[in-house]
Amino acid sequence: MAFDYDKYIRPGKLPHIWCPGCGHGIVMKGLIRAMDTLGLKKENTAIVSGIGCASRLPGYIDCCTLHTAHGRAAAFATGVKLAKPEMNVILCGGDGDGTAIGGNHFIHACRRNIDMTYIIMNNYIYGMTGGQFSPATPTGHKASTTPYGNPDPCFDIAKLAIGAGATFVARGTAFHANQIDKLIVEAIQHKGFSVVEILDDCPTTYGRRNKYKSVIEMMNRLKEVAVPVKAAEKMTAEQLQGKILTGVLYKEEKPEYTAEYAKVIERAQAK
């Protein structure tokens, strides 16, 4: 299938600011393919982000976009969706923006089950703001604020989303580029809060500090650790040690927040 990338690229904004080897551009192309597959109208689609490398993504896409404060993407997006429930609302951000400074907004967006899709680009670090460790930085790995190794246990973002109440949770990687758009399509079509975690790489602030020799080595790491959910069903616990499940991890149907909120408004108006 041929995709019309140019249709969704905002004129005059390329080349992008991402470092050579960064996985965010792969994710952006996956999002554009998903939008093209679904035939989303630009005027009826809002892409919302916070601050950080991943949060620069909406600036390159030609639709309704909102570049907000650090960690506040879910809060602003909730306002957009409540004001205009008919809009397709998509959030983009990194692991730090989404689960550290924005963690509170993230878990409550999951809890409410509001009909939005959150694409979290997890590169295990704060990239733009100086290479600090994030809640997703693996234990023992180095960052600018943990030069001798991170002592903290890290979040499993997918499990965090499921535990907080998200009704669609999926995970992919930048290496498995052709899977990204399919996961995003399914997430957007789901009626409820959807989280798509994409594991990608940051060669500049994460890779260098953790002794990766090249972007190719980092990409191969994603290839080696990823195991599709269906394949995992046939593997032993020992075989799954150190692996990360990919694909659709969780899906259920529950009442959607804007529909439930509309009922509250109806009851109030009836008084």
UniProtKB/TrEMBL annotation:
Keywords from the named record: Oxidoreductase
Domain Thiamine pyrophosphate enzyme TPP-binding, chain residue ranges per copy: 51-198
Coiled coil region boundaries: none
InterPro entries: 2-oxoacid:Fd_oxidoreductase (IPR051457), THDP-binding (IPR029061), TPP_enzyme_TPP-bd (IPR011766)
Pfam families noted in UniProt: TPP_enzyme_C
Domain of life: Bacteria
Family matches, as CDD domains: TPP_OGFOR (cd03375)
Record flagged with keyword Oxidoreductase: yes
Name of this chain's protein: 2-oxoacid:ferredoxin oxidoreductase subunit beta
